[in-house]
Write a structure and sequence with these properties.
alpha+beta; three-stranded antiparallel β-sheet; 337 residues; 11 helices; seven-stranded mixed β-sheet
Length: 337
Amino acid sequence: MSGTVHLPLSELEAIISAALVASNTSGDNAAIVARALAAAELDGQKGHGLSRVPSYAAQSKSGKVDGHAKPTLERTRPGTLLVDVANGFVYPAIDMALGQLTEVARSNGIAAAGFTRSHHFGVVGHHVERLAEAGLVALAFGNGPEAMASWGGRRAIFGTNPIAFAAPLRGRPPVVVDMALSQVARGKILTAAQKGEPIPEGWAVDANGKPTTDAKAAMAGTLTPLGGAKGSALAFMVEVLGAALMGSNFGFEASSFFTGDGPPPCVGQLIVAIDAEGFAGSGTFADRMAVLAEAIEGDPGARLPGMKRLSMRAKAKADGIGVEAALLEQVRKIAAA
């Protein structure tokens, strides 16, 4: 089966949820994970969408991920929260944490939530976007299994280690910055490997450290850091903020997000929320953001970061979400097993 199938958001969520439930995930957790993966497809972030279902299902089925996990949250200081994901999927833990993180940030001016014994962070921009929609400025950092060598080296030490930022804009959707610290998110290479398509030169090297355009060889090798040495340094920073602070595994200690074998990955993440009212004031902040946005958008050809997602969402909601027919059939078979 080849080609593209278009589905409404609700149907895609139901198919993903059914596949996870059939793979030893609780109904509540499956529904939350399905919403996150379908939302990734809605924004065109296919490396974090339907393509993740076979590996998520395999991990839940084998017990590498506890599909029935119930996260717990502890307020360790007036402005800090520690969330134990309990080796489950991270999305239920994020849902649990964001409401309290918002309240603590508004009370203290700034707040942070750390996630330990965690898993794949998904589209990190979605997490900070939710905080920005509540009027907060937000940052997020997450580490992952080894995928990228430290600058000048060959051994995979860091994950793709995504970072994200979001800030509210008066009367319009938030601005969102979301990026992996490799030249490309590994999920895009996974998608290319599943389709049997090549990848652009410069994205990765093979297991021998040689540049490759073969997606499968890239999956067995290491990714190239974004911006060379600077990207590598930022990836180091994320290991400290996302893993060391939480007592979590570093990238070179974590098991793969893509296979069902091995122990839980036990990675970590950090989300920080800032209330402008604790600084210059929310009104002043909104005024200054409007000036900045006008300066950028007044320059022909320039746009604010992350705004492309809005047009992609609108198109997908109108036309249906386009997914690979063969991948969809694979997920349906998992649900029927």
